Amino acid sequence: MMSLTDQLKWRYATKKFDSTKRLSAEQLDYLLEAIQLAPSSYGLQHYKVIVVENPEVRAKLREAAYGQPQVTDASQLIVFAAETNIDEAYVKSFVDLVAETRNVSRESLAGLEGMVLGGIANRTPEQLLLWAQKQAYIALGILLAAVAAEGIDAVPMEGFDPAKFDEILGLKEKGLTATVIAAVGFRAEDDAYSKLVKVRRPQSELFIHI
């Protein structure tokens, strides 16, 4: 069995997917559960994840992603959309979920609620959005590790027009904005990029030990 680091050496940002190969329902469920388990600040999960499979929608998204073929050719397109309205109601809903999930009284979580509310009160709307977007990137990282562990290919993508994605997917009215996307599936045999040696800075240059 390959180690995670071996799998990470195997993975690459897939440029050409085999459009005839699809993830099984079990594989997709595994990836979505991994995303669901991703850490986030306070555990708020400041984003939603849109799984796009509809061919017509994906064709429109490809145009908004500057024609990149991975958007339509991969098995699924995963859109991480940051929450744009992290407010008191959002926090209270989170605390309600904590109480229900852990079977504890709502009153016993007053300290947690106060801490989180204080955390959002000290941020401007712009800072709150940036905070949410950072959490979405953590979830993306978990996805990329999960696909590598399962021998599934993926490519994280920032090359798209967020405003057009928001319009196509109806995200603005949901209090969301597209932040980063990832196409998941299986590499085409003739993707030349899969044969390239991975280039990374040596550890002596990357890590600083203090």
Automatic annotation (TrEMBL):
It holds the Pfam family Nitroreductase. It comes from Mucilaginibacter psychrotolerans. It comes from the Bacteria. The keyword RNA-binding does not apply. Residues 8-185 form the Nitroreductase domain. Belongs to the nitroreductase family. This is NAD(P)H-dependent oxidoreductase. GO terms for molecular function: oxidoreductase activity. Its cofactor is FMN. Keywords: Flavoprotein, FMN, NADP, Oxidoreductase.
